[in-house]
Structure formats: structure tokens, C-alpha cells
Amino acid sequence: xxxxxxxxxxxxxxxxxxxxxxxxxxxxxxxxxxxxxxxxxxxxxxxxxxxxxxxxxxxxxxxxxxxxxxxxxxxxxxxxxxxxxxxxxxxxxxxxxxxxxxxxxxxxxxxxxxxxxxxxxxxxxxxxxxxxxxxxxxxxxxxxxxxxxxxxxxxxxxxxxxxxxxxxxxxxxxxxxxxxxxxxxxxxxxxxxxxxxxxxxxxxxxxxxxxxxxxxxx
Length: 218
Prior knowledge:
alpha+beta; 5 strands; about 10% strand
């Protein structure tokens, strides 16, 4: 999904407010055993050894079809060849193009780091079922299916998805990431990758493999 950084920041600046106005992402007061991270302590989750010689930052959107393709077709190879072998660490930086994408990110974080990557896989695997839903309410019906499969209770998911402070913090954290990694107007869409400090756009696995192997050989 392609969009300039300036246009993207303008688009997302009101996302949390839009969700609140529609009845989602407003402050909730009760929860049983919700384990989502505090809204004022947002972190980016990573897979792989922190000592890996190659570090990849992936900018992704849960509603982006190109990101879905990457995670379905390319990521399994990357994981098997490099992440699971300790050669590569990959860190996810979420991008929010729309309300649905922000809602998906909130769900992925509802279960904390322990469930984040499993929920991320489900969000991409079933992207068509929820991201193209006719309303946020309809999307939430689908998202709750993923949460149940991950062992989460509907009541806790409701609290999580109605958390206005979390929504605002996620948007602010995302904007800070973009401003740091893509100064000016240099961000052009998802998926995008920063491999050992160098920016790359979406690519085939063979191309990514060459870049990684060259970094490993240094």
C-alpha cells in the first residue's frame, strides 16, 4: 500500500478520535485479567535473537494486501532460513492507514507479547474476513474469533478495543517511528524494510536473501 509520509500522518492524526466517535476506542473502566501493555508504554515486538548480525525493521499495515502477501509467501521462508537460525531479528512497526488497521493492531496487542505474533498471523491469514467488513462492529465480530482462538475472553477484548488512551498512544508511537526512520517525505508505503539501517521497499524473497547474505558476509 503506497502513500506519502505527509499524507499518511495527516490521515492518521484523527484515527483515534474517529474510533471514539463511532463508539470504539473510548475509555473502559473494567477488566478481569487483561494483559495488554499500558497505553503509555508502547513497544515494538521482535522475533529472533537480539544478538543477530542482521536486524530488519518491517513497516506493516494489517489492512495492506501487499503485507498479507509478504507474510503468507515470503515471511515463512525468511523465518525458516534466517530468524529461527539466529541470523536475523525482525521487528514489526505498525502503520495505520485506516480505522480497521488501527483496530487490528489493538487486537494484536490485547494479549501482550505472548500472543502478539499468533494474532498477527491470524489477522493476515483472514484479512479479507475482517478488513473489508462493512462496519467496525462487523469487523469486531471477526476479530473476536481470533481472540477466542488465542484463549482470550470476549469481555477482555471489549475492554481492549474500547481503550481510547491505547488508541491515541498507538497513533502517537507510530508517528514517532515514521518521523525517526523516514525524515521528510521519504516514506512511501507498506511493506517497507530497514535492513541494518538501509531502507528498502517491498521485494521478492530472492532479492531480500541477497541483501541479508551480503550483510552476513561483512
